[in-house]
Amino acid sequence: MSTGILEPLLPALGPWLEGRRWFDARYAGARVEADAESVLGDEPPLLVHAVVSAHRDDLPVLRYQLLLGLRPHLPARLEPAAITTVPAGPWQGWRVYDALADVALLGLLLRTLAGGAAGPGLRLERTSRYPLPVGLVPRPLDAEMSNTAVAYGGRILLKIFRRPEPGPHTEVEALHALTRQRCERTPRLYGALHSDAPGARGLVLGLIEEFLPDARDGWEEAVRHASDCMDEACRGVPAGGGFTVHAGGLGRAVADVHGALGQAFGRSRLTAADVAEEAARMNMRLKEATEEVPALARYTTRLGALFEDYARIAASGCPVFAQRTHGDLHLGQALRTADGWRIVDFEGEPARSAAERARPQPALRDVAGMLRSFDYAARAALALREPADLEADSPAQRLRRRRRASAWAVRHRRAFLAGYASAGREDPQCHPVLLRAFEADKAVYEAVYESRHRPDRVAVPLAAVHRLASTSR
C-alpha cells in the first residue's frame, strides 16, 4: 500500500544513498524513483520499508531496499543517523533517519515478521516449523558487506538484501538445500522475505538464518595474524603453526560444503564446447573491464592466452566438472567457531547477474576466490603497518616487511589448498592452469569492483593480475 511519503523525500534520499557502502558509484547523480513503500507501526517511532530504483540512460535500472525511521522529534542519540525532514503530507515536520540506528524499530520488524506479516506487500516465507523468537535485543553488524545484517540476541540473523532481485534467489536456494542436507559447515535457514507490492512484486528482500554469536571473522583474524608477521611476532612459530593450521581447516570446511552442494544440486561434466564458451565469456569480461580500468589493457594478450589454455585443456579430454558453488568465497565469508569453520553468504558476486550466479561452475572457482582473499589479507596487513612507519623506517625495513607479507600469503594459500585436498576432494594443485585462469578472472572482477566502490584499493587486484599474467605460460 502506497502512503505517498517517499516522493517528497527523494531529493534527500539520493545523496544519502551515494554515501552507503552498498551503493554502486556508477549511479552517482542518477534519478531516484519510488517503487514500493509501506509504513509499519501504530505509534512513533514508525518504520518505513521502501524499494527505490536508480535510473541512468546508459545503465540498467538498479533497485535498492531501504529501512527508514520516522519520528516527530529525533533524540540526540539518533541525530548522527538523520537524513531529512518530511516536507509535506500527514507526517510533515517529522524526522527521517536510518532505521538501522534504532533498536526499537529493529525489534518492531522482527515482531511483525514473527507474527506472519510485516505489512502490505512484505511477507516471510518460512522454511522451518519452529516459531521465531521475539524480544531479542537487536544489534546491526558492522562488517563491510554489500548487504545489511542484524543479529537478534545470540540466536538469529536477519539479512537484508540492499539490492533485491526477483526470485529464485541463489543464497536462499543454497542455504535451504544445505539445511536439508544437514550440512554442519553452514548456518541453518529459517525463512526468506518476499515482496508482493505492485511496484516490487516477486523481489526477494532478505532471509533469516541461524546466528553464530561466538564466531570469529576469518578476515579479521587473518589480517591480525598477517600484521603480527610483518614484524617479529612470527619468529619461532613452526611453518605449519599459527594461523596456518586454521587455513588448512578452512580448506577442509570449503571442501565439505562443496560436497554437500554437489549432493543437493548435482554435478556434471562440462563439454569442450561449454568450456570454450566460458573461456570466451572470461575474455569478454576482461575486455569490458579494461573500459572501466584502463590499467588492465596491458595484460589482455597474456590473460587471453591463459583463458585459451583453459579451453584447450578441456578440448584435449581433461575432465572439467561443474556444480553449484558459493560464488563469492573469501575470508570475510568464513567464521571460525569453537568446533570449526562455518561458511556464510551464498549470494554470489554482487556485480554479476542472477543468471550468472546460479550457473553451475567448477568448484575451483571458489578455491581461487579464497586464494585471492589470502593475498588481500596480506596486503591489508601491510597497509596497517606502513603508514605510521614510513618516515621512521629505512627502505630495507620496508622491503623486508613487504617480503614477509608476500611470504605470509604464499604460506597460507598453500595450507588452504592442502586442507582442501585432504578432505577427499580433487587436489587443486593438480590443475594449475585452471586454478590460475580462475584466479585471474577473479582478479579482473575485483579490479572493476574496487574501481566502483573502493578506488583506493584497486592496486591490490592489479598486482595480482600482473603476477598471474607474468606466469601464465
Keywords:
473 residues, alpha+beta, Aminoglycoside 3'-phosphotransferase, Chain: A, domain 2, 2 domains, 6-stranded antiparallel sheet, 5-stranded antiparallel sheet, 16 strands, globular
Account of the 3D structure:
This protein is α+β, with helices and mostly antiparallel strands. The chain folds into 2 domains: 7-210, no CATH class; 216-470, Aminoglycoside phosphotransferase (APH), C-terminal lobe (Aminoglycoside 3'-phosphotransferase, Chain: A, domain 2, Alpha-Beta Complex). The chain has 12 helices and 16 strands. The chain has helices at residues 10-18, 103-114, 170-180, 218-229, 243-265, 272-292, 300-315, 354-358, 364-389, 395-422, 432-453, 459-470, and strands spanning 31-40, 46-56, 59-71, 82-85, 95-98, 122-126, 138-140, 148-152, 156-166, 189-195, 203-210, 216-217, 267-269, 321-323, 334-337, 340-343. The strands form 4 sheets. Strands 6-10-11-9-8-7 form a 6-stranded antiparallel β-sheet. Helix 11 runs antiparallel to helix 12 (459-470). The longest helix has 28 residues, at 395-422. The protein is globular. The termini are far apart.
Distance separating the two termini: 60 Å
Radius of gyration: 23 Å
Sketch the topology as an H/E string, one letter per element: HEEEEEHEEEEHEEEHHEHHEEEHHHHH
Return residue spans where pLDDT drops below 50 for at least 5 consecutive residues.
Answer: none
Question: Helices and strands in order, then pairings?
Answer:
Elements lengths: L9 H9 L12 E10 L5 E11 L2 E13 L10 E4 L9 E4 L4 H12 L7 E5 L11 E3 L7 E5 L3 E11 L3 H11 L8 E7 L7 E8 L5 E2 H12 L13 H23 L1 E3 L2 H21 L7 H16 L5 E3 L10 E4 L2 E4 L10 H5 L5 H26 L5 H28 L9 H22 L5 H12 L3
Antiparallel strand pairs: 1-2, 2-3, 3-5, 4-5, 6-10, 7-8, 8-9, 9-11, 10-11, 12-15, 13-14, 15-16
Helix pairs in contact: 4-9, 5-10, 6-7, 6-11, 7-11, 9-10, 9-11, 11-12
